[in-house]
Amino acid sequence: MKILPLAAELNSILAKEAPPVLEMLSDLGRRFYFPKGIISQSAEAKAKAHKFNATMGIATEGGAPMHLASLQKYFHLDPADVFLYAPTGGKPALRDAWRRKQLGENPRMKGNPSSLPVVTAALTHGLSVVSELFVNPGDKILVADKLWGNYRLTYEVRQGGQIETFEFFSGGLFNRAGFRSKLLEIASRERKLILILNFPNNPTGFTPSPEDAEAIRLAVKEAAEKGLRQVVVCDDAYFGLFYDESCLTESIFGYLSGVHPNVLAIKLDGATKEEFAWGFRVGFLTYGAAGNGNLEAVYAALEKKTLGVIRAGVSSCPQPSQSVVLKALESPTFQAERAEKKEILRARAARVHEVLKQKEFAEAWTPYPFNSGYFMCVKLHGVDAEKLRLHLLDRHQTGVIATDGTDVRVAFSCLELDQIEPVFATIYQGWKDLRGSI
Ligand SMILES: Cc1ncc(COP(=O)(O)O)c(C=O)c1O
């Protein structure tokens, strides 16, 4: 298919400054560019057309965006922060503020310059933008065998990639050896891989240790040295919700960004889970490349392609929610509020650990390790997870998620402390009702 001149220009920048990154792009990714159309003409007019500005596809009145009182009355915000289109890459002040937050919370990110985050309509959209830019039909996607099911829709169903898995746990710990050997085995047969790392993990609520993170870094580097081009997607949806000091308390992105020219790390994070703002749809996509080329030029080229995908898909992300997330980031009480909610979730996780000590539960299930996030997961003994889920709904009015044939996920994030023991007692009762049914 035809590559238009603006896309060819971006591709030639990548060819010069980071050739492996060009190779990582999908065919679609190679075709993307950010048009010098209405958006950039309007931006130029905003800077220079001080007399009359007749560029934008909005309506104005008295120097403000035209708006209805029935909508504005729900916002304590300037109408411009509610009704105007946000820029395709997101509100500049929000991008800067999120960058400061990322650097403050991830000491390792200071070691290697990464791009300014681009705003996405939360993490799902970020995952989808990445899949469009980097996944060709048949490309291999490596992810832990405990995974968020939506990866299948985005990467396999929609984009035609092929998901392969590595065993997440070995003996109750992160499976370092299994991860490394799977990666090297892929390196022996493939030239390109999309690796998705999700810590804290959905569904298990597990985050590996700093030593595990170092082992992951070394394995990725080793595979890169063998020639495997790796797009490493760090899905940090549950970032910050770490309850056990022995787990990694920063994003693995900082370990992988800059590790080798054959590795392009991509950080996806956002307000959804960590700021408890699920419906806002505010997320961020950040690149971390490596090599001797001009990385700023690489980031600028990747950003234009990313903006092209956003422009083609949703045009831009919602303005009101970006405005309030920015205000929250600037609020002096923001960190204290987050810490307070994290303590509530930490107490629930601790209560789950306590409840799980009940001796009789051992016959029914084995819990997977968990130390972070919203969830925990158990592996059932001798009972089908879907059957148990339906049974718990029908007979015990209790909802849990069956993530596969043996595993049940419990979202302790939406259980009050005093509900935790009864929920596990109910799951155990359900298990006893069905014991021996498979
Ligand atoms: C691991 C993981 N990544 C991404 C998402 C999607 O987040 P968002 O609502 O920001 O699209 C979820 C949501 O459940 C998730 O569990």
* Spatial extent as radius of gyration: 23 Å
Helix share, percent: 40-55%
- Globular, elongated, flat, extended or rod-shaped: what is the shape? globular
- The number of domains is 2
Structural class: alpha/beta
Bound molecules: pyridoxal-5'-phosphate
What's the main sheet like?
Answer: 7 strands, mixed
Taking the alpha carbons of the first and last residues, their distance comes to 52 Å
Arithmetic mean of pLDDT: 96
Strand content: 5-15%
What does this protein structure show overall?
This protein is α/β, with parallel strands linked by helices and about 450 residues long. The protein has two domains: about 270 residues, Type I PLP-dependent aspartate aminotransferase-like (Major domain) (Aspartate Aminotransferase, domain 2, 3-Layer(aba) Sandwich); about 100 residues, Aspartate Aminotransferase, domain 1, CATH 3.90.1150.10. It is built from 19 helices and 15 strands. It has a seven-stranded mixed beta sheet with strand order 3-11-10-9-8-4-5, sandwiched between helices. The protein has a four-stranded antiparallel beta sheet with strand order 12-13-15-14. A two-stranded antiparallel ribbon has the order 1-2. Helix 7 packs across helix 15, helix 16 runs parallel beside helix 19 and helix 18 crosses helix 19. The longest helix is centred in the last third of the chain and has 22 residues. The radius of gyration is 23 Å and the shape is globular. The mean pLDDT is about 95. The structure holds pyridoxal-5'-phosphate (PLP). Pyridoxal-5'-phosphate binds next to helix 8.
